[in-house]
Amino acid sequence: MAEAPVWVLDTNVLVSGLLSPFGPPGRLVDALLARRLRLAFDDRIELEYREVLARSRFGIAQAWQDAFFAILQFQEHIPPLPWPHRAPPDADDTVFLEVAIQISSQTLVTGNLKHFPPNCRGPVTVRSPRVAWEHFRRLSSA
Q1: Would you say residue 1 lies in a domain?
Q2: pLDDT for 125-135, tens place per residue?
Q3: 6-9 and 107-109 as β-strands: parallel, antiparallel, unpaired?
């Protein structure tokens, strides 16, 4: 793989990936930590990541949180532009689309596809972690 793809990862993908390394979210987080996948985010997404990963009910080890946040400086910090299309059902999810539309892949990975119905996605490709992992593997072998 010549250049690492840049994708937006919904917070639920990070939580799942940090809690269990065995499924597709875990494999995507592994690729991110290995710098084979790059993350696009903005200040609002970073704040959500920090707040959610620190929740004690998830029990995410501090070492894993530290490792994740240490790599953010090497990722794609994107200043958002307003979302020009129909908003998703939960307006708080718009931030992920606002960042995804600005990266060349225009890809958002989420474990909650119903939060991003097709009529609210604009040109953004929204993938489940499993489909995203399969796509990543194809990119890696090309």
Answers
A1: no
A2: 999 999 999 99
A3: parallel
